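haha ok so turns out i had the wrong file open the whole time. this is the CORRECT one, sorry everyone. sequence first:
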Amino acid sequence: MLFSLALWLFAESLAVSKASTPHLALPFVPGKPIPTYSAEHMAPHLETLRSLYGRHKDIPKQYELEILVALSHFPDLRDTRIKFVLKSRAPISSRPYIGTLFRAKKRRVYRIGISERDRFAGSPALLRNMSFNARIGALGHELAHTAWFEKKSFFQFFAIGFSFISRKWHRQFERQTDQRAIDYGLGWQLRDWAMEIRGGRYRDSPQSWLDRYYYSPEVIDAQMRAAPSYGSAPPPEEGSAK
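then structure:
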């Protein structure tokens, strides 16, 4: 009888645990493509997002919500150590901490830098100048880099470093990263980011590095149309509100 009582109490505790699981309260299915995230709708779920996706992450408060929403699309990074720092030579960047490459993969640490420097103050590529949805797209691109880095060995990183000498390889690297972000369900957000950093245009000038190295909004549209998971999603409105 005591054994039966213990089993019943254990079952009850599991039921309570499942009933209070944080992800049940989220207003979206993590990883599923949706056209638009807004700070207003996501803010009430900050604690839930933090408990689910904030493990081993150093996150600046001013971008915490959009970072956690972007992380919700990368289940393979849930236990990855990532530091989001407000310092970067580019408007936003990602790389591993070199010293941690000597460790086992599960103990590596990655850095995503977000620039707050005045020299980028008026740039649409600066995270703080983007809409909430576009910020998630920009962060998703960098997290897609991190997800790719996670699969590489110590020696492969040296080959990657030398490969950046080739513009053709660099172009392929960035475009494949855009594709990974789309595959992770962030196509709409990537599209907003691509539109905003081009000043609302589908294409930039023919000489622009943006169209050379990254997917244009129309290419993102085509890739989403080709993916079954985006089939029922309506097109977002042109130019998301901040």
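Strands lie at 57-58, 81-85, 92-96, 109-114.
again sry for the mixup
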